[in-house]
Design a protein that fits this description.
single chain, 114 residues, alpha+beta, HIT family, subunit A, 5-stranded antiparallel sheet, 3 helices, 5 strands, binds adenosine monophosphate
């Protein structure tokens, strides 16, 4: 068993509501949604935090945003608008140490965030 929760989702050891998958990227609904649409978009490669992203990961990280664009379009929220956010470490509230983009939409999102 892997220590990384999201690696367990990638390997299907833990079930998830998967909405998007490619060779490099997986996206699934957040178990504790903060908006009508709340999807987590992760690389299949284990990267702990934004601080651990290397130059050679640039294309992979870009693919997370391409996934966000496709999912938003598929869910019909692209024109209304949505937010993507990635938390880094304790002060930002990161709880799972495998980088993930939160894709939030389907309601008005306030700014600044809490
Ligand atoms: P963060 O606080 O940015 O690290 O976000 C971690 C997110 O993972 C939270 O929004 C959790 O609700 C979500 N989460 C934790 N466990 C699961 C799971 N098994 N399936 C889907 N989402 C999860």
């Amino acid at each position: 068993m892997s220590e990384d929760l999201f690696l367990k989702i990638i390997s299907r050891e833990i079930p998830a509501d998967i909405v998007y998958e490619t060779d490099d990227v997986l996206a699934f609904r957040d178990v504790n949604p903060q908006a009508p649409l709340h999807v987590l978009i992760i690389p299949k490669l284990h990267i702990r935090t934004i601080n651990d992203i290397q130059a050679q990961d640039a294309e992979l990280v870009g693919k997370l945003f391409l996934a966000a664009r496709e999912i938003a379009a598929g869910q019909g929220i692209a024109e209304d608008g949505y937010r993507v956010v990635m938390n880094c470490n304790a002060m930002a509230g990161q709880t799972v140490f495998h980088i993930h983009l939160h894709l939030l939409g389907g309601r008005r999102l306030d700014w600044p965030p809490g």
